[in-house]
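Minutes, project check-in
Item: structure for the 370-residue chain
Input as provided by the requester:
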Amino acid sequence: MTDIASGSTYQKALQRFRQNLWGVLSFWYIVLCGFITIFAYVLAPDASQNANQMHLSIHSKPPGFKVKMLTIPSQIKVEQNFFDRIFFGKKDYSTELPIISYKTTDSMLQVQPFVEGSLQSMERTIPLSDFGEEVNLSMIEENYLNNRTFLLGTDKYGRDLLSRMLIGIRISFSIGFVAVLISLLLGITLGAIAGYFGGRVDAVIMWLINVTWSIPTLLLVIAITLALGKGYWQVFIAVGLTMWVEVARIVRGQVLAVKQMQYVTAARTLGYNDFRIITRHILPNSLAPVIVISAANFAGAILIESGLSFLGIGAQPPMASWGAMIKDHYSYIILGKAYLAIIPGLGIMSLVMAFMLIGNALRDALDVKG
């Protein structure tokens, strides 16, 4: 076996990686993003599904905006287990109403809804029975009234921007993971077959690779997305099916070089079948460049998904997607509220940069030059 497969070489590579400051910082940032991806609804101030609680009266407010919020409970009974609520959000049919002031009468709660500027809002009367039987003002203040702070402000629909950002990371992170997984399965399989068997098999696979490579990535993704339909999982498949060609070419080149090694010839002499030789002897010594290209593909998948969502054929509303958030708010740049588009843009940039930096760190650690 070659040195790249030995434990000592991997230990040296790990040591070199630890000495790369930007690589280590990127690694922990990606770990943090992965944690947020799993527990987004636990961390988000708005834990409703897709953080979709709208408050049109407080739309596009700046970061740090504060308002008193009245929650009017719904009469719809929802049965939801703990894990469903943690990982997929709370099915919340209650109504949240931003208010300026409130007071009670014998059986009514009179509130003055929040309005923009100096306009005078019309008082709204809500029966106390809507909050349950035998409730009083102190019970309402304790359970249904709270002072809400929107740390990153609100979007054009009055939704909490911080919550949308935290939940939106799920789309970007998961699209990268699934797309890279699909590209690795296809790329490694076809690249290994082409490099090992050669001849007509290699010619056919290389023709398929060149045809796929000649089509612009975004155009191919749009075509596949339109064929499969617009949606969440369709984007995963479409992006994955466009990223396998780079992996296949790299694996093919590595296999062509490694299969000439003496230990591969010895394996053939011992009578091992082709499948065992490829999976046990050739691929383990050929995957170092694939690890590096996977990090770059992860970043590329995030950018492609963001572009598709910006064009309206990615994740569909009301799902939170960073690309869709930029699409909804890019016109606000000329209205003096550029942060509505800049914040999700910074999210995309930071995540893509982290994967590119960790890819560079892995390249240096594994000493991959091609």
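Outcome recorded: The chain has two domains: 3-36+162-366, 66-155.
No further action items on this chain.
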